[in-house]
């Protein structure tokens, strides 16, 4: 008899799971409390997968053998309370995809910041080396869709804490933990310890034959490691001091020492600039070395990689003013990294839906580097209150065109206009991609 598989949420991960489930002989039903995009409805129809939108049929859902839950559905929701009460097994889409890809190698990357960049850079290393790799997860196609439609030998998977919350057997060959800073705490009872533990689930099933790659400079990571055992082979990386094994800096050179094979690249030759990208480059380079990719291929990739759209993306230069789109920066820590990497005076465009941000972390950097802040959002009061004493100019705007015009008006030749909002985008935009695209369009109209 077919197992009843219910998929809650019909975004990219839900549809990918539905396709994989159908392909593997499950009785699949998709349920979404909101509207499902037309393109996804067509896919479900073509594949004869029944679905509902705008509601959840409790009787059908609670009768499932197994549920795959969208990362966006919180445990506190009425739906999940009922599911847990009935004790229906719940897994995430990455857990389901992993079930059918155990013959491949999996490199999983998590962290509060830099996941997408490191995932793309790691994928680029594997591709440059001529390996049959796929970049999946929160970036590109869902892991399950890739397994269903175009299986690969190597999966480079960007994973969030929400996805890790619902794994059971997911066991990456290489797990990378970049950093842990406060984010999404509303989903973790506002307890940092819960969020940290969630991130560390990436390594929970690993054994000595696997690798756990982590940043020694992150106090949350090192604090957790003092009280918990990791069973895989650990490879640290740092920019603070030389190491015998791992990634480190000496004389402005990035060193990657894995399997007794030293590899050195000048930090000035790296394609991605800024302190945070030293970490990202080290992590990606270590991942490549654990899979015995040749040093020349890793070096080639690290020095020629093009950054991702909306992530410290250079847009253009207008009358000597550089414009950079960092719309993906949806928390204060991302903005801190962006400002830290700036070498010229900055006109900063920021704001949006404030997730309870603590702007005190960037006050010193704002004072040192920012000549004007252009607020872009419905409620800019928290930014005004926290940063007005640290920069001479703060202006309110309510749309992207006005924000870009105001920023350009306060910029001089040699300055940088940086869109790095530190906030979610939903007050004025569909998502961070829409915000970034509108920024680029407004810049082109100058």
From TrEMBL:
Q: What is this enzyme's EC?
A: 6.3.2.9
Q: Which GO terms describe its cellular component?
A: cytoplasm
Its annotated pathway?
Cell wall biogenesis; peptidoglycan biosynthesis
Per the record, what are the reactions this protein catalyses? UDP-N-acetyl-alpha-D-muramoyl-L-alanine + D-glutamate + ATP = UDP-N-acetyl-alpha-D-muramoyl-L-alanyl-D-glutamate + ADP + phosphate + H(+)
- Primary subcellular site in the record, as a coarse category: cytoplasm
NCBIfam families linked: murD (TIGR01087)
Put simply, this protein is called UDP-N-acetylmuramoylalanine--D-glutamate ligase
Going by the UniProt record, its keywords in alphabetical order are: ATP-binding, Cell cycle, Cell division, Cell shape, Cell wall biogenesis/degradation, Cytoplasm, Ligase, Nucleotide-binding, Peptidoglycan synthesis
Annotated GO biological process: cell division; cell wall organization; peptidoglycan biosynthetic process; regulation of cell shape
The residues listed in the UniProt record as binding ATP, with positions renumbered to this chain, are: 111-117
């Amino acid at each position: 008899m077919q197992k009843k598989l219910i998929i809650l949420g019909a975004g990219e991960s839900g549809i990918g799971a539905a396709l994989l489930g159908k392909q593997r002989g499950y009785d699949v039903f998709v349920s979404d409390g909101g509207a499902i995009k037309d393109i996804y409805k067509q896919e479900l129809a073509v594949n004869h997968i029944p679905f509902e939108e705008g509601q959840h049929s409790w009787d059908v859902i609670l009768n499932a053998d197994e549920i795959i839950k969208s990362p966006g559905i919180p445990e506190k929701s009425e739906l999940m309370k009922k599911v847990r009460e009935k004790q229906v097994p719940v897994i995430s889409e990455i857990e389901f995809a992993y079930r059918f890809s155990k013959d491949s190698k999996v490199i999983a990357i998590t962290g509060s910041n830099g996941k997408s960049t490191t995932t793309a850079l790691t994928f680029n290393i594997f591709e440059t080396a001529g390996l049959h790799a796929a970049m999946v997860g929160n970036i590109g196609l869902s892991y399950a869709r890739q397994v269903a439609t175009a299986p690969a030998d190597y999966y480079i998977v960007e994973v969030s804490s929400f996805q890790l919350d619902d794994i059971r057997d997911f066991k990456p060959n290489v797990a990378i933990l970049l950093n842990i800073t406060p984010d999404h705490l509303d989903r973790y009872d506002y307890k940092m310890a819960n969020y940290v533990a969630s991130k560390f689930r990436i390594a929970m099933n690993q054994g000595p034959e696997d690798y756990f790659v982590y940043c020694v400079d992150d106090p949350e990571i090192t604090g957790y490691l003092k009280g918990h055992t990791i069973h895989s082979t650990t490879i640290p990386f740092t920019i603070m001091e030389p190491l015998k094994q791992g990634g480190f800096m000496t004389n402005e050179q990035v060193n990657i020492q894995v399997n007794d094979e030293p590899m050195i690249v000048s930090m000035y030759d790296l394609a991605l600039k800024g302190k945070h990208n030293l970490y990202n480059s080290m992590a990606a380079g270590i991942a490549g070395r654990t899979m015995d990719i040749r040093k020349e291929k890793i070096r080639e990739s690290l020095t020629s990689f093009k950054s991702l759209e909306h992530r410290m993306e250079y847009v253009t230069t207008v009358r000597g003013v550089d414009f950079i789109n960092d719309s993906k920066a949806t928390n204060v820590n991302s903005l801190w990294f962006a400002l830290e990497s700036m070498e010229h005076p900055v006109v900063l465009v920021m704001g949006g839906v404030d997730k309870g941000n603590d702007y005190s972390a960037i006050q010193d950097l704002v004072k040192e580097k920012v000549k004007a802040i252009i607020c872009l959002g419905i409620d800019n009061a928290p930014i005004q209150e926290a940063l007005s004493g640290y920069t001479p100019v703060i202006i309110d705007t309510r749309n992207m065109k006005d924000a870009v015009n105001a920023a350009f008006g306060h910029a001089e030749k040699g300055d940088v206009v940086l869109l790095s909002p530190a906030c979610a985008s939903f007050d004025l935009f569909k998502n961070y991609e829409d915000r970034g695209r509108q920024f680029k369009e407004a810049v082109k109209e100058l």
